[in-house]
Amino acid sequence: MSWSLIESMSEFINSELLKALRPKEATPNLTLTVIPIDGNISFQLWTPNWTPKNRKFTPLEIELIRRDSQRVNRIISKLVWLMGAICIAEDDWNVGDCQPIYDWDTILEFVCREGRCVNPVVTRVHFIPQIIIPIYDKARKQEGIIPPQAWEISPSHWSVIFDDLIPFGNRYELKQAGEWVSVEIWTGKPMRREVRDGRFYVEYHDIYASCRLGRL
Question: Which domain of life is it from (predicted)?
Answer without folding.
Answer: Bacteria
